[in-house]
Amino acid sequence: MRIPKFPKVNLGFFPTPLTELKRLSAYLGGPRIFIKRDDQTGLATGGNKTRKLEYLIGEAISLDCDSVVTGGAPQSNHCRQTVAAANVYGLNCCLQLGGHYTETLEGNVLLDNLLGACIHWDPQHRRAEGLQTIANNLAKRGSKPYVIPYGGSNAVGALGYVSAVGEIQKQLKSLGQNISHIIFASSSGGTQAGLTIGKIVYGLDAEIVGIEIDKSSPGEKPLREKILTCANDLARKLKLKRGIEMSNLSFENGYLGGGYGVVGDLESSAIRLLAEKEGILLDPVYTGRAFGAMLDLIKRGRFTKNDTLLFIHTGGTPALFPYSKDLLK
Ligand SMILES: *Cc1c(COP(=O)(O)O)cnc(C)c1O
Fold first, then answer.
1. For residue 43, which of 152, 164, 199, 219 sits 20 to 30 Å off, Cα-Cα?
2. Which residue's CA is the closest to the ligand 1 atom numbered 8?
3. Which of the four pLDDT bands, split at 50, 70 and 90, describes residue 126?
4. Structure confidence at residue 103 (pLDDT)
5. CA 312/CA 38 separation, integer angstroms
6. Residue 141 has pLDDT above 70, yes or no
7. Residue 195 parent element (H or E)
8. In a 10 Å sphere around its CB, with 0-12 CB exposed, 13-18 middle and 19+ buried, how is residue 313 labelled?
9. Rounded distance, CA 255 to CA 181, Å?
10. Confidence (pLDDT) at 318
11. Average pLDDT over all residues of the chain
12. Which residues are catalytic?
């Protein structure tokens, strides 16, 4: 299928590696597990937002914007990659971070500072709810800001994970390998929307399984609805004949643990296991939880020994440092 062209810039080193976790699989007694290293995109310590930002920054530049505005939690990997991406193309970057200045100068917030972001601290807004106000203020001062939503999750950003499916398919082909499931941490939904539409575009025969890592707040749309909306916006953008339905989305939502960013046994033992068996570092908020969920789902038989799994490592390792106390408990 021909994909229409959209404005895009280069921000990462692609393709990211795709390797097999042989020692881990042997330890578990199966199934075979592969890992896609999107933690290695290279943009100021990397992560899944790099793929989205290639299209988002591309659009910002095509609209002649001179600054970008986005937001998230203080340890947002999305915010850190956005500042770096803005710097690569000479744009200013304002972040709204949902916390206090005194909270932490470690991990991603440290990197945001080093990268020179202008930071608006706002403890009331962890999910980038006040971005338009910041953008309006910038516009009043003669700037032309481009607003990037929470997690970079709209149809433009999700294009990055449509092309990721093409990249994965090529790598699997050269390995002569099929997979049955793609598993990853799902939070603002753009990654899952992109992968789900990418599966259709590239005819990939694998189930796309998002592990929900963050509960929606009261009154907010549930994640599955956000993903459905984003995926169907994306389908229209790509001029696909049909969109998708809720029944086309797969989720696991039994792994919310103690809430967003709370590290429990599931997360810390998954982080230690992968580190000890394969020398690969997961993160405490997203991939530690998703990987722990995958291991539990193997135990419960949701994934069987005959399946072949692909886990997408979506990044987040800078957050290991501010969570050291929880991880060493
Ligand atoms: C943002 C993020 C995710 C979730 O991706 P979404 O597209 O927001 O669902 C997963 N892992 C890490 C490390 C992230 O930073």
1. 199
2. 188
3. confident
4. 64
5. 7
6. yes
7. helix 190-202
8. buried
9. 18
10. 97
11. 95
12. 76
- Ligand 1: list residues with CB < 6 Å: 47-48, 77-78, 151, 153, 185-192, 283, 286-287, 314-316
Q: Are 68 and 86 in contact (CB under 8 A)?
A: yes
E strand map for the chain: 18-20, 32-37, 67-72, 92-97, 118-121, 145-147, 181-186, 207-212, 250-252, 308-313
Do residues 211 and 184 touch, judged by C-beta distance below 8 A?
yes
Q: Which of 43, 48, 197 to mutate to test the pocket of ligand 1 (most atoms within 8 A of CB)?
A: 48
**Tokens read off for 190:** 């753009």
CA of 119 to the centre of ligand 1 (A): 21
| Cβ pair 120, 134 in contact under 8 A | yes
Q: What are phi and psi of 155, to 5 degrees?
A: -60, -35
Q: How much distance in Å is there from the Cα of 117 to the middle of ligand 1?
A: 20
Edge-to-edge strand ranges of the sheet holding 118-121: 118-121, 92-97, 67-72, 145-147
Residue 329 pLDDT class (50, 70, 90 cuts): confident
Report in angstroms the alpha-carbon separations of 315 from 74, 220, 280, 319. Answer: 16, 26, 11, 10
How confident is the model over 220-230, as a mean pLDDT? Answer: 94
Q: How far is CA 123 from CA 82, 83, 98, in A?
A: 20, 20, 4
Joined tokens for residue 72: 């998230």
φ, ψ of residue 250 to 5 degrees: the values are -115, 135
R_g (Cα) of the chain, nearest Å: 19
Please report the pLDDT score of residue 130 as a whole number.
Answer: 85
In angstroms, the CA 95 to CA 325 distance is 27
CB 13 within 8 A of CB 42: yes
Q: Taking a C-beta distance cutoff of 8 angstroms, is the pair 165, 204 a contact? A: yes
pLDDT average, residue stretch 237-264? 95
**pLDDT (mean) for 220-233:** 95
13, 44 in Cβ contact below 8 A?
no
pTM of this prediction exceeds 0.85 = yes
Phi-psi region of 282 (alpha: psi -120 to 50; beta: other; left: phi over 0): beta
Average pLDDT over residues 193-212: 98
